[in-house]
């Protein structure tokens, strides 16, 4: 067996990372960006903003920020894509993004994890709501804390 150099290990890791980024993360970010554009064109983003505005105001966010949390709950990359799209269209500011960032990571990809991890590990489905609730509660606490420090 031959010894692999540090450069070989690095190149192999970079190739694997590229494949993960292109095949897993990029489609989620692109899907989220397209979804936000559809919501904006149809006017549903404005309606979402009006409906969820009072709830999101607790965290110092506009109502449209709920789309970031929903996107993050489905896919962390999707949540980042939604946040980037809303930031680019000036719906979110840098302060809003700072408040949302911990929540994206604390509650991100739960739907994907439910199938990939919890299902294959044999966790009973009756525990799913508790686990999801804890993650969402942690995200809410983080947004409240970030509201005062952002």
From TrEMBL:
The keyword Membrane applies. One of its GO terms (cellular component) is plasma membrane. Keywords: Membrane, Transmembrane, Transmembrane helix. It comes from the Bacteria. Residues 24-120 form the Nucleoside transporter/FeoB GTPase Gate domain. InterPro entries: Gate_dom (IPR011642), SpmB (IPR052549). The keyword Lipoprotein does not apply. The chain crosses the membrane at residues 80-106, 127-149. This is Nucleoside transporter/FeoB GTPase Gate domain-containing protein.
